[in-house]
Amino acid sequence: MNRIFSGIQPTGNLHLGNYLGAVRNWVRMQNEYECIFCMVDLHAITVWQDPAELRRSTRELAAAILASGVDPKKNTLFVQSQNPDHAQLAWIFNCVARLGWLNRMTQFKDKAGKDRENASVGLYAYPNLMSADILAYKATHVPVGEDQKQHLELARDTAQKFNNDFGVEFFPLPEPIIQGAGARVMSLRDGSKKMSKSEESDYSRINMTDDADTIALKFRKAKSDPDALPETAAGLEGRPEAANLLGIYAALSDRTRDEAIAQFAGKTFSEFKKELTDLAVAVLSPISTEMKRLLADPAQIDAILSEGAHRARAVSNPIMAEVQEIVGFLKAQ
Ligand code: AMP
Ligand code: TRP
Questions:
Q1: Has residue 181 got a pLDDT over 80?
Q2: Model pTM score
């Protein structure tokens, strides 16, 4: 049986890249598979988070996921810290995974930067917690962005080593699902950089909470070039901004990039940007309206998440009972 697990960090504003690259795919998968979607606050605190801001961001992310169409009745949607099994399995994996494996993780090198001695121990052990997230549910498939591929390989190695060390066939080896279109939305200011929460200029991204005027303004100011839009994909060579905006249009309209190219061949940027804005507003404004409605009642969001955590624990508790038996821990009476 296939079981999907995916996680997203509750840090800061959700943007169009998160929506097209992650959340929208969750919405699509919920009809085909058993899905467990987790807001990973334990991962978020591997770098400093202001407590009040973390609480706010967690509810805002929940609202965005719900408003995008993830049905909390069909799926399990919950906050990581509300199921202690993640932390316990992560500790066991800290004792299974090897130092040499973690030393190869490029995300740690990127995030820790030059001052590695000053990075938190949690940032270093981050991939083991991610393996635990997935394997506490024996998930078989994990939809992630390209950047998480290495962590998924580590999760497979850890599952395999656990099985070998203890002589069991217990954990499945989880497979990544790397999405196609929309998997990489670039900055509106620089077509060679990923759209990101952390870029300083707010004009670099479309936030899920932006209103129609802000979306229009950001696309109007988005970097472009003086030429008309090309007739063929080859004409996008060396024009990263045009490629990005056409890619966004294609992803938002559920078309291929070639179809978008054919639609706008020979048009000016200003004509194209107007249509892009109309489409983005049509897709995003119902979501941001629904987010606002949900956020007006935080107790309701908290209740949905508590129910999700309850369901998550019901799946992971029996798996963890078996893990404890395999490892040799005494059962509590
Ligand atoms: P992060 O914002 O890094 O926590 O990522 C949350 C999810 O959104 C992950 O699945 C990422 O792969 C995805 N994501 C983040 N930025 C982008 C982007 N610019 N384009 C496409 N997907 C993205
Ligand atoms: N590390 C992932 C990211 O930054 C988030 C994450 C944590 C995750 N645990 C996970 C993703 C488990 C998939 C499965 O995007």
A1: no
A2: 0.93
